[in-house]
Amino acid sequence: MTGVGFKATRKTIKHLTKIRTNTTLLHSEYKPVPVEKRLENTKVVKMENGYAKIYVGDSKEGWVESLNEYLNLLTKKENEDIHTIKISYNSVRPEGERLKTFGGTASGPSPLREMFEGINKVLKNEIDPYLAPIETDDKGYGNVRPVHILDIGNLIGANVVVGGKRIF
Questions:
Q1: How far is residue 84's CA from residue 163's CA, in Å, rounded to a whole number?
Q2: Are the C-beta atoms of residues 148 and 119 closer than 8 Å to each other?
Q3: Residue 13 falls within a domain, yes or no?
Q4: At 88, which CATH number?
Q5: How many domains, the chain?
Q6: What is the pTM of this model?
Q7: Is 35 helix (H, G, I), strand (E, B) or coil?
Q8: Domain housing 80
Q9: Which of 14, 46, 66, 107 has the CA that lies 20 to 30 A from 75?
Q10: 113 located within any domain
Q11: CB 73 within 8 A of CB 23
């Protein structure tokens, strides 16, 4: 059996930065770009109108960077003016394309999109109607509880597992 373990208790998460729950998450229509035009690393463009766009890079690092940038947009004070986050997966190789260094085939953008959607739903309390929502201040910041961290951790873990399908 393989895997990774983690725990989330009130003690282990009490120092986590507050996170905003008042943003809108959008996804660009997936239009894969040719190999030579793909971004390797993730790029973020912040616009003056309160929008930020995350361009996901086509690498394991690019996927990690996209999650990090998403969380930065939700937690860092300098991003308070961002109310809408849009994610472009166009540089992510299409499902079924061979993975050269990792082996197997690409899973395409769907698992990554599902992870972001899942995290958004956890933060907005759209998964379990019996769970008390995250209490927020007037700027939309709130403290996550252990159950939120567990849900988000499981979403990330599920994304990692399907990140590269193996063919044997």
A1: 26
A2: no
A3: no
A4: 3.30.1620.10
A5: 1
A6: 0.90
A7: helix
A8: 19-163
A9: 107
A10: yes
A11: yes
Count of beta carbons in the 10 Å neighbourhood of residue 49? 9
Token representation of residue 38: 């793909």
Structure tokens at 107: 């899973």
The helix or strand, by DSSP H or E, that contains position 53, with its residue range, turns out to be strand 51-55
Angstrom distance (rounded) from CA 99 to CA 164: 8
CB 150 within 8 A of CB 118: no
End-to-end CA distance of the chain: 19
Query: Which of 152, 150, 109 has the alpha carbon at shortest distance from 21?
Result: 152
The string of pLDDT tens digits covering residues 26-63 is: 999 999 999 999 999 999 999 999 999 999 999 889 99
Q: Where are the alpha helices (DSSP H) in the chain?
A: 10-13, 60-75, 110-123, 146-162
Residue 110: what pLDDT? 94
